Amino acid sequence: PGVPPHTNRLINEKSPYLLQHAHNPVDWYPWGQEAFDKAKKENKVIFLSVGYSTCHWCHVMEEESFRNKEIGEIMNKNFVCIKVDREERPDVDKVYMTFVQATSGGGGWPMSVWLTPDLKPFAGGTYFPPEDGVHRVGFRTVLLRIAEQWKENKDALLKNSQKILEALLHRSEICVRGQESPPPSKQVMTTCFQQLSDSYDEDYGGFSGSPKFPTPVNLNFLFTYWALHQTTPEGARALQMALHTLKKMAHGGIHDHIGQGFHRYSTDQHWHVPHFEKMLYDQGQLAATYSRAFQISGDEFFANVARDILLYVSRDLSDQARGFYSAEDADSYPTTTSREKREGAFCVWAAEEIRALLPDSVQGATEGTTLADVFMHHYGVKESGNVNPMKDPHQELKGKNVLTVQCSPELTASRFGLELGQLPALLQEGRRRLSTARAQRPRPHLDTKMLAAWNGLMISGFAQAGAALSQQQYVSRAAQGAAFLQRHLSDPASGRLLRSCYQGKDHRVEQSSMPIQGFLEDYVFVIQALFDLYEASLEQSWLEWALQLQHMQDKLFWDPKGFAYFSSEAGDPSLLLRLKDDQDGAEPTANSVAVTNLLRAACYSGRVEWVEKAGQILAAFSERLWKIPITLPEMARATSVFHNTLKQVIICGDPQGEDTKEMVRCVHSLFSPTKALMLADGDSAGFLYHQLPFLASLERKDGKATAYLCSNFTCSLPVTSPQELCAML
């Protein structure tokens, strides 16, 4: 309440993260020429702070240090201070994160880096506490030491920063050496499978101890490995590892059992206590991965989890204009009168709260059983709380419970003498009442920034779920998302993508005064989304836009000397390095997805140079793919698609005909990582016939919808029954 005592120039920005710092006593600048000029003119060190709006430790550092008046004075006197939202400017983030990781052996956010006036880094770290502690030097001390060093030893710092930059340039170079060719898929796939198998947690699934991230890239690799080795013990193990991990995640506290969707990661090995923020990119990828699990297994459990994710996104992360918001925060006020936010406050429960909400006695159960007894037993609720104090260093979750499915339905039912068929309705009623109660709590902060790349991942999630689950409303939602991208995140004059837009006043979509141009990941994830949306809807306009964007991506980012794509385009003097990411993490790296995109683009256009480019990317990364493919599971997966050649599944038929729809449903019901589906509707003047003239020679047999399987311009014999097509696939 009242007028804030300080306001800095971040008040004019659109990014929710930058706006969170607009009332600090620090004289923050956004990344840009004004700050660079000031540093040069006054010969001052630049302090660069990078984070994002739903980052817990970013909030902590802001509260402890950036709101502190004395620390603010030290910063303003000695440094030019710049704030960057890593989600708006991944290019800036990656350059300096490369430095922090190389010099400190770790990385993360908030990232704190000190630069010379010409933007070269010479010192850096992540979170600093405000004052010196037993194990860590405080932020105030670091600031004063660096200011003193700059006064006393400026020449040495400048010389050192030049050496650091040269080392980073050398270290981060990814290119084809000599006549390298794409590595053979058999070795790459086998090594990647073995490395994942060795790091697999047999009990709880996943591929590390703690913290544990969902990493859909690992699961998608395993699905493809299984598809290519279905009859071998290794293939069976790959499938078991992926499905077991997905089940354990869905049962764990990383899955929000009351409000749907998935939190960002688990702080423990058991998927129990999460870091509570929810990211759009996780929801998009996991919706697609659970849909694939359903295609493969036929188990409705996985379909239900996909539906759960899409319900959360439709309700909580969707803009009126049909774009998707970036994230929901981990921290919130426990009650409407609280003065301090706590991590997980929106999501956790005290046992007495649940008892008060679910006091009803349960008919047919052991005498005296209440709905709370059944619910608490099933979801592992304890009277004193179920969070290990070791996983709660700030005592924010003391006495609280994170819901996690502890028992099978059979065990819970038998514990209370219930019929198995009674249990789902009881648990559903419990979840409904907790959801109503939770709606009265103050909500966490919502980051309403809309990013092209993450919107692309979410469109893919809706499109793939719509196809695999035969749910037309999901395909329609994907199409609305793609139309949003066309309206708000692409420049019709140049044909280029923009990085971000924002929810403005009166819920209108706004753009910043200097729109940020799209990066490689924006193109790659949007192109992938448009191919997925075409296969789900068979609307050719999406295909046409995907191919236009692929041409634009080649023009802006391709490295003609060393091959593969740079993450950012040339021509920005403030970027010291043009990097190529070399790790599939929480999101796949752009070059990994670009390989499959190029192969799909070639299938839909007949342009063999795109197949060649896909091979050149694999060649550029071949050393890593040979030795440690576990760091690039999505690219390892793409290696197998490259060597196995994508098959064109062409259905000749009337788009509205029931026979055509049955054929399409058959294709959608199967998981096949090496297919590209297309509809030849007989319109010889249409876009697809123009791209692939050979389609005109494919006929409908006896006037029925007819399917052909084509590869390298040769086609199978025609089939007219869905059963034959399924068998062929």
List keywords for this structure.
five-stranded mixed beta sheet, Thioredoxin-like_sf, single chain, SPT20 protein, 6-hairpin_glycosidase_sf, about 725 residues, alpha+beta, Glutaredoxin, about 45% helix, four-stranded mixed beta sheet, 27 helices
Structure commentary:
There is one protein chain. By secondary structure, the chain is an alpha+beta fold. It contains 27 helices and 21 strands. Among the domains are: 10-172, Glutaredoxin, CATH 3.40.30; 347-440, no CATH class; 648-728. It has a five-stranded mixed β-sheet with strand order 1-3-2-4-5, sandwiched between helices. α19 (520-537) packs across α21 (590-605). The chain is globular.
Distance between the termini: 64 Å
Biggest sheet strand order reads: 1-3-2-4-5
Question: Globular, elongated, flat, extended or rod-shaped: what is the shape?
Answer: globular
C-alpha Rg (nearest Å):
27 Å
Topology record:
Blueprint: H1 16-19, E1 28-30, H2 33-42, E2 45-51, H3 56-66, H4 69-78, E3 79-85, H5 90-104, E4 111-115, E5 121-125, H6 139-152, H7 154-171, H8 185-199, H9 216-228, H10 233-251, E6 265-266, E7 274-275, E8 278-279, H11 280-297, H12 300-316, E9 327-328, E10 331-332, E11 342-343, H13 351-357, H14 371-378, H15 409-415, H16 423-438, E12 446-447, E13 449-451, H17 452-468, H18 472-488, E14 490-491, E15 496-497, E16 500-503, E17 509-510, H19 520-537, H20 540-557, H21 590-605, H22 608-620, H23 622-627, H24 633-644, E18 647-652, H25 658-669, E19 675-680, H26 687-691, E20 706-711, E21 714-715, H27 722-728
Parallel strand pairs: 1-3, 2-3, 18-19
Antiparallel strand pairs: 2-4, 4-5, 6-7, 8-9, 9-12, 10-11, 13-16, 14-15, 16-17, 18-20, 20-21
Helix pairs in contact: 4-6, 8-24, 9-10, 9-11, 9-24, 11-12, 11-17, 13-14, 17-18, 17-19, 18-19, 19-20, 19-21, 20-21, 21-22, 21-24, 25-27
